[in-house]
Specification:
Helices cover 32% and strands 26% of the residues. The two termini are 22 Å apart. α3 links the parallel β5 and β6. With 332 residues, it is an alpha/beta fold. The strands form 3 sheets. Strands 10-9-8-11-12-13-14 form a 7-stranded mixed sheet, with helices on both faces. It has a 5-stranded parallel sheet with strand order 1-4-5-6-7, with helices on both faces. The chain is built from 10 helices and 14 strands.
Length: 332
């Protein structure tokens, strides 16, 4: 039952929001999100939300500051319009990579700042996908549901019928994410140990595990400039890998990312639609996109009905086949 559920969207990823509402069988909420002549954001609700269970879909992807401000102002408008509950659905949470002070560096913990600001405008809970670090959930003073793209990726891996698979973690920090996929598929886990010299620069890469004549499936949460991804693919093939595919949830793809992907030995990059692909990325023959619309829609329905979300992944973890439509066009 979703009679009391209302979904709004900012400008960051309207196509995803439309797919989610299509899956739920409801109309996308009527809200104006525009700009004044001086560039300030103008928000106006065009429907009554008093007593409603409201969800706002808005990843804080590029441009992150504008999309974040849209989200904050939408949440404030809905809060002041007397919604009974407001859930910020942030498929990709920007600033999440700035989640700690490494060796007491004089830097902000930006993820905590974003969490404090979001809570201050009156939200009741947050729903996100593949947080860069799960402990960020503790930065918020409200419940946070972090759902996983792994079922979507695993189903696609099974449908592609790759031969002789090994699952690869691109660094030590991503081992738990990759291990979960390897465990479900009953495949070996390989780790790429990279040594960073500076931000966005990699000095050396060592491969821990056997990749000779294997199809390597890299599992990661974010692909940004894709420089490290390209170097990882090159290292794996130098070690004898037959093919290298990468499954990354959030396609940030900044800077020379498309150039780096096209010039790399990577066979294919598979991403989710938590972030919309810009035109150059859509035209790249090495990039394929899956939709998280069904996964998000089911999570929204469960939150609204006070049902368990973890059951989705418990069911998946028990070995059952997830019922996730992968076709990006299915719900347009």
């Amino acid at each position: 039952m979703i009679n009391n559920l209302t979904v709004f969207s900012g400008n960051a990823n309207i196509p995803l929001a439309q797919k989610v509402t299509n899956v739920l069988g409801i109309e996308l909420g009527d809200m104006m999100v525009s700009r004044f002549a001086d560039g300030e954001i103008n928000i106006k609700l065009n429907e009554n939300v008093r007593g409603k269970d409201v969800f706002i879909i808005q990843p804080t992807c590029a441009p992150p500051n504008r999309n974040l401000m849209e989200l904050l102002l939408m949440m404030d408008a809905i809060h002041r319009a007397s919604a009974s509950r407001i859930t910020a659905v942030v498929p990709y949470l920007g600033y999440a990579r700035q989640d700690r002070r490494v060796r007491s560096s004089r830097v902000p913990i930006s993820a905590r700042v974003i969490a404090d600001v979001m809570v201050s405008v009156g939200i009741n809970r947050v729903l996100t996908i593949d947080l860069h670090a799960e402990q960020i959930q503790g930065f918020f003073g409200v419940p946070v549901d972090n759902i996983y793209c792994a079922p979507l990726f695993i189903q696609d891996i099974c449908e592609q019928h790759y031969d002789n698979i090994v699952i690869v973690s691109p660094d030590v920090g991503g081992v738990m994410r990759a291990r979960a996929v390897a465990k479900h598929l009953n495949k070996d886990l390989v780790i790429v140990d990279k040594r960073r010299q500076a931000h966005n620069e990699v000095e050396t890469m060592n491969v821990i595990g056997d990749v000779h004549n294997k199809t390597c499936i890299i599992i990661d949460d974010i692909v940004d400039t894709a420089g490290t991804l390209g170097l990882g693919a090159k290292t794996l093939k130098e070690k004898g890998a037959a093919k290298v595919f990468a499954y990354c949830t959030h396609a940030v793809l900044s800077g020379d990312a498309i150039k780096n992907i096209e010039s790399s030995v990577l066979d294919e990059l598979i991403v989710a639609d938590t972030i919309p692909l810009y035109e150059q990325a859509r035209k790249c023959g090495k990039i394929r996109q899956l939709t998280v619309a069904y996964l998000l829609a089911e999570a929204l329905r469960r939150v609204s009905n006070e049902e368990s979300i973890s059951v989705l992944f418990d069911h998946f973890g028990a070995g059952a086949q997830p019922l996730l439509p992968l076709n990006i066009e299915k719900y347009q």
